[in-house]
Amino acid sequence: MHRTYYVLLVLGLFLVRFGESQTLQNLPQDYFQSPLDIELKLSGSFGELRSNHFHSGLDIKTNQQTGAKVYAAASGYVSRIKLEHYGYGKALYITHPNGYTTVYAHLEKFAPRIEEYVKSRQYEGETYEIQLYPNDLELRVDQGEVVAYSGNTGGSGGPHLHFEIRDADAHPINPLLFGVQIPDSRLPLVKQVKAYPLDEESTINGKNEAQVLRLIPVGVGKFKVEPFSAYGEIGIGVNTNDQMDAGSNQNGVYGIKTFFNGKPSFEMTFDSFSFDETRYINQMIDYEHFQKNKSRISKLFIPDGSPLSMYRETTNNGKLTLVDEGSKHIYKVAITDYDGNTSEITMDITNDSKSDNLVPFDPKNAMLVAHNETFSTTQGSFTLTIPSESLYEDTFLNISENADVLKVHEDVVPLHKNMIINYDMKSKLGDDMNKYYIARITPWGAAYHTPSSLKGTTLTAFTRTLGTYAIRKDTNPPSIVPVNFKNGQWLSKNKTLTLKINDKETGVAAYRATVNGKFILMEYDYKTNLITHDFSDGIVTDTENELIVIVTDNVGNSTKFEANFQRKE
After folding, report:
1. DSSP readout, 154-189?
2. Confidence band (pLDDT; 50, 70, 90) for 29?
3. Deepest of 84, 247, 377, 533, by most Cβ within 10 A of its Cβ?
4. Which residue, among 153, 132, 154, 128, has the nearest Cα to 522 in the 3D structure?
């Protein structure tokens, strides 16, 4: 297709607005075909709110099974292949002549010629985790060609295909804009509404604190909240999801628009975003509410400093200013899915008078941490540093130390950058200091390894989670247990060699397997703690075989497993 056609396409993406027709003529509605040959049902939608990020594609259900054929959505070439234990697991990237790239993730395996290409380089580098960038002549594919098989690898919570379309700047774009169709005639769900005073003088129902408002259904897709009074500058938030026709699971909505006294106030549309901005989701939602209640309330106003590109036209950044005592206002929220199904919320707000009885905030022993300055404090043997722009706003944090336990507030305030925890190990001189690490202690007392490094006598950890941290020592090596064989067994009928590896304290950091001194590739599934070698790799060719597996944890403890087996093809 002509280059000018796609210039118009990119311009069109910037012009998409809530309420406009979903079928824009400038979009190539027929360029990309479905990556699966089954009915498309979603377990996750584009822009859906996830932990620390917006969902960047569509999660397509595969009937709770792995192995579905995955097709190239358009002709092009494989430009990137990434295999990792976590994240996307096995992922394939195809770049197309129109400048877009499609992404296929959580795959079980690749099509034979791609699989051969990948494995040859894994064996060459003697590593499972690998990232490859083929040139435009190495792995060309045609539209509709089988390029992989769906799976459940990486951070997947169940069998499905994660599918993305990215532009030339690697920004993910909602695939529904390109004509991918998912039947949806159901209205978005409305679960909670919350009102927020946005400064120390503002009030909701006479109090300077955020309040969940009682939600009242008044018809199909129609809601109101119990009338409330407010003073000063306030904001509204909503907890909402969408449901599609083919499933009971909840997905993200497409757009939200608000009106204050009949005039547009705020607009947010999930068309596209950049990966650089995705962590700002923690500023967009009520993070504390989520941590305490496990439900995400989206703020219907733009927090100071937020760069999110899904925000559209707003008035006063969506914030409401209420100062004329006794005045009455109507605030409306329209929540829409991609097919235009809309749920509406109406709120009656009465201006309150300024309160002279507000209890001033008492920080007690909390420390004020400015969001635009680097903060550092020494507590016992710990030194804590919070870099500039780690916090989204100036915040009082409770920070203290007791018996080698550092408390950094609690995980109700989001961090955008890593804070640095240093621990002076001089008290451990003469001990095996390499076995120590910094652990995050949960409210229920569990200890989780935080990646830590020792330099001299300083132990350092980087983390973006506030909470309680302590020094722990791990001297227990990992465990290795054979699953589908025994020492000395004949394995001629086995297709795979499988072992279970585990480290209960700091986790598995690395593993390596050899047969008769030759490296063999083993795939690690951290969800099941299994490592598996596929005999079809053709590495094991001798009848008598000596297997050696070495597993190392995150502080250097290691276990060596040895076994013999016989095999004949």
Report:
1. TT-SSSEEEEEEE-TT--EE-GGGGT------PPPE
2. confident
3. 533
4. 128
CA quadruple 285, 288, 291, 294: dihedral, nearest 10: -50
The pLDDT score that the predictor gives to residue 158 is 95
How many angstroms separate the CA atoms of 404 and 469, rounded? 9
Looking at residue 13, what is its pLDDT?
32
Please give the domain boundaries of the chain with CATH numbers for all domains. 3-178 (2.70.70.10), 189-351 (no CATH), 367-473 (2.60.220.30), 479-566 (2.60.40.1220)
Position 361 scores a pLDDT of 83
Q: What is the distance between the alpha carbons of residues 518 and 538, in angstroms, rounded to a whole number? A: 12
Residues 6+ apart with CB under 8 A from 411: 291, 465, 466, 467
Give this prediction's pTM.
0.93
Residue 3, pLDDT score? 33
Distance of alpha carbon 134 from alpha carbon 373, whole angstroms: 43
Give pLDDT tens digits for 146-163.
999 999 999 999 999 999
- Other Cβ atoms closer than 10 A to 209: 11
User: Average pLDDT of 80-100?
Assistant: 97
User: What DSSP designation does 379 have?
Assistant: E
In the chain, the percentage of residues whose pLDDT exceeds 90 is 91
- Residue 564 in this model has a pLDDT that exceeds 70: yes
What is the Cα–Cα distance from 206 to 204, expressed in whole angstroms?
5
Buried b (16+ CB within 10 A) or exposed e, 124-145: eeeebeeebebeeeebebeeee
The tally of CA atoms less than 13 A away on the side-chain side of residue 105 is 24
Whether the predicted pLDDT of 479 surpasses 90: yes
Place of tokens 């083919």: 246
48 in Cβ contact with 296 (< 8 Å): no
